[in-house]
User: Which sequence fits this backbone?
């Protein structure tokens, strides 16, 4: 039998919920008020025969009084509380925090999995386990769920939002979500469960994790110095992913609250300002038990639900292990429309389930696939163990429809999703790295210094933290496809979520494909000097998306406006070390074996072709282009030159590809010769007899009319001055 709350606190709360005083209960039981007071304060407990009378007085069964694992249903039932409109007439037309992220299941996976990692119970020594469930409801299943969330009470508020949807962005999203549910007779739930996490501990209103997530914005109360989050914005992705702005929560606590740990439930709704029956409402609403300690018992707080209630809400947890379950109601994945894969086209050709040709933001199969891709890409390192070190994270994804399995639960395997990087990290954990790459499958390791600045704008260096750089080759085409773009460095810190992904620029031509990992802060080892300080510094250098390190307001305020240059130096040193590790050794000449082989071979020589007279024009033969850390285009180009006694100087011209009109011309921030040419005032000049040449360049970001990631690059070689 489940252990419930202490009798005294439980009884005191039931009396508040029922609107009864201790004196009134004493009169009904025909006992003295002192006897009831003794129960409340814990000085005594009622006899078993009195328990039956107490149950009758509270309008519940005797089992509930004995076990005390839930509240009675009498007096103040679970309901929706909508925050009243502001007295000064102010209006919030949506939660601004939600606009920091797109309605994208991959963004949601990144933020929620990061939060679960941050709340992992380190004292257990075990990974935090996170499971994503995509569940589509139709027919009776949909009707039953709407009844469980008291949909009829919410509908007038949704109708009020829909009436003004044409003038307001959030309103249009909500209106589209409601119409999709009614017109297509479906609702997609996206549930995120974590186990071996702290759970939403703390009071409903006071400082604590519960209030930070459910009641407040821009508050981050994370456990441990290596936590990923710092802005308190990540939770907003849950509501941003819901077309209905609705999330319901069930938490099992690692620390008891009100003597309880299991099935702490609350719902939060994010709608814009609205007016219902002439009454204005500010925006958010909460599903919970009316709090008798608030004026008029109007404000809803969390409640301790029974097993039947959490089952009806699709929030049943599989064990009593601490953690939280978030249910995103009306999940959508707008960003998936920009990432159509060949598999999507195949499903269309085969007559897929969607009538709109796959252009559906609620395609549960595509959601499943994109969740697996995102989790493998961003958290491969957290899921990797080795050398006696357990992984920090285990993740799985499953998809259902009306309780039946559509796609079996899929355990995300880092060695499948990121084979090269996983191999590199395991080699590091197992002490199997080398100094130089001399054979396929090896992993080279090198220390990269991060000089930490003094805080408060003081000049000087606090100390040098040694990050760990790992480099390995990409063994096969299959590995290259799985790892994503080749020749990248994945940078990460304490919680081992990939923060920064960047191509190594200006690589020598002809190198083998590789992947690299940069471990900084506690990811390099908690015992590494200045690991904690590096964590704090880099955490402050991350934007809300936690997808890069660079200049931020917090970094400038806490350290100095130039502190970001320390990170630039780290990046420069890491890129330099990679180039040294992957460069091919120069061929030696004059070896005996080579001379003997040359004598044994007979090569038939072709007669020399007649060299044409007059100037010849070089042609662009190969181009490698990437986008740099600052948003610039970085190019490496090869030029083919016909035979001739005079070579025309050429000017490289970078342009943006547009659908109509002239192509905007970009300025060069850097243009350098690599081989077979020289650069003079932006012009390429070639020595007589040159047949091939290579040059390299970077565009000036200030000359870009739009960001590089939204454009295509055109490179031309023009004779003369390039006009």
Assistant:
């Amino acid at each position: 039998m489940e252990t419930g709350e202490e009798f005294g606190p439980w009884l005191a709360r039931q009396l508040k919920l029922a609107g009864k005083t201790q004196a009134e209960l004493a009169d009904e039981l025909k006992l003295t008020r002192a006897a009831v007071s003794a129960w409340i304060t814990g000085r005594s407990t009622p006899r078993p025969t009195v328990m039956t009378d107490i149950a009758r007085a509270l309008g519940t069964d005797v089992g509930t009084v004995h076990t005390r694992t839930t509240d009675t249903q009498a007096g103040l039932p679970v309901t929706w509380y909508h925050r009243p409109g502001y007295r000064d007439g102010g209006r919030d037309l949506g939660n601004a925090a939600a606009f920091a992220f797109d309605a994208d299941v991959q963004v949601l996976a990144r933020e929620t999995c990061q939060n679960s990692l941050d709340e992992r119970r380190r004292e257990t020594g075990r990974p935090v386990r996170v499971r994503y469930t995509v569940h589509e409801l139709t027919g009776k299943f949909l009707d039953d769920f709407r009844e469980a969330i008291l949909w009829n009470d919410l509908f007038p508020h949704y109708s009020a939002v829909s009436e003004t949807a044409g003038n307001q962005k959030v309103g249009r999203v909500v209106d589209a979500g409601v119409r999709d549910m009614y017109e297509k007779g479906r609702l997609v739930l996206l549930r995120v469960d974590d186990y071996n996490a702290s759970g939403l501990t703390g009071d409903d209103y006071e400082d604590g994790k519960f209030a930070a997530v459910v009641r407040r914005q821009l508050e981050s109360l994370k456990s441990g110095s290596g936590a990923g989050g710092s802005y308190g914005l990540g939770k907003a992705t849950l509501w941003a992913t819901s077309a209905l702005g609705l999330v319901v929560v069930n938490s099992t606590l690692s620390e008891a609250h009100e003597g309880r740990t299991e099935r702490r439930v609350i719902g939060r709704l994010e709608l814009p300002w609205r007016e219902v029956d002439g009454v204005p409402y500010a925006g958010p609403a909460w599903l919970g038990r009316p709090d008798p300690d608030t004026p008029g018992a109007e404000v809803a707080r969390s409640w301790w639900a029974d097993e039947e209630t959490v089952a009806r809400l699709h929030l049943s947890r599989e064990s009593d292990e601490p953690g939280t379950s978030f249910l995103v109601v009306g999940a959508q994945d707008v960003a998936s429309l920009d990432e159509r894969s060949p598999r999507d086209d195949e499903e269309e050709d085969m007559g897929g389930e969607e009538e709109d040709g796959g252009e559906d933001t609620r395609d549960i199969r595509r959601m499943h696939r994109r969740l697996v891709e995102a989790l493998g890409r961003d958290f491969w390192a957290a899921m990797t163990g080795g050398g006696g070190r357990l992984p920090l994270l285990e993740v799985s994804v499953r998809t259902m429809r009306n309780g039946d399995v559509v796609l079996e639960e899929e355990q995300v395997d880092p060695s499948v999703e990121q084979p090269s990087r996983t191999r590199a990290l395991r080699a590091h954990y197992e002490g199997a790295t080398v100094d130089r790459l001399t054979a396929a499958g090896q992993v080279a390791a090198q220390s990269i210094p991060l000089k930490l600045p003094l805080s408060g704008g003081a000049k000087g260096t606090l100390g040098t933290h040694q990050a760990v750089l790992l480099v390995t080759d990409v063994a096969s085409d299959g590995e290259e496809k799985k790892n994503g773009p080749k020749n990248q460095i994945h940078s990460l810190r304490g919680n081992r979520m990939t923060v920064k992904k960047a191509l190594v620029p200006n690589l020598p031509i002809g190198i083998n494909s590789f992947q690299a990992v940069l471990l900084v802060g506690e990811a390099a080892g908690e015992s590494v000097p200045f690991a904690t300080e590096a964590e704090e510094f880099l955490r402050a250098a991350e934007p809300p998306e936690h997808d890069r390190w660079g200049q931020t307001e917090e970094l400038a305020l806490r350290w100095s406006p130039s502190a970001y240059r320390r990170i630039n130096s780290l990046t420069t040193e890491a890129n330099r070390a990679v180039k040294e590790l992957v460069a091919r050794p120069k061929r030696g000449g004059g070896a005996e074996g080579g001379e003997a082989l040359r004598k044994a071979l007979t090569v038939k020589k072709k007669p020399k072709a007649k060299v044409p007279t007059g100037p010849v024009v070089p042609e662009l033969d190969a181009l490698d282009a990437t986008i740099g850390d600052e948003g610039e285009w970085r190019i490496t180009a090869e030029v083919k030159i016909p035979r001739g006694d005079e070579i025309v100087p050429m000017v490289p011209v970078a342009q943006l590809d547009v659908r109509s009109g002239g192509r905007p011309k970009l300025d060069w921030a850097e243009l350098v010769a690599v081989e077979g040419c020289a650069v003079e005032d932006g012009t390429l000049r070639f020595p007589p007899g040159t047949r091939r040449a290579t040059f390299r360049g970077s565009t000036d970001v200030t000359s870009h009319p739009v960001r590089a990631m939204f454009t295509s690059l055109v490179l031309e070689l023009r004779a003369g001055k390039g006009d």
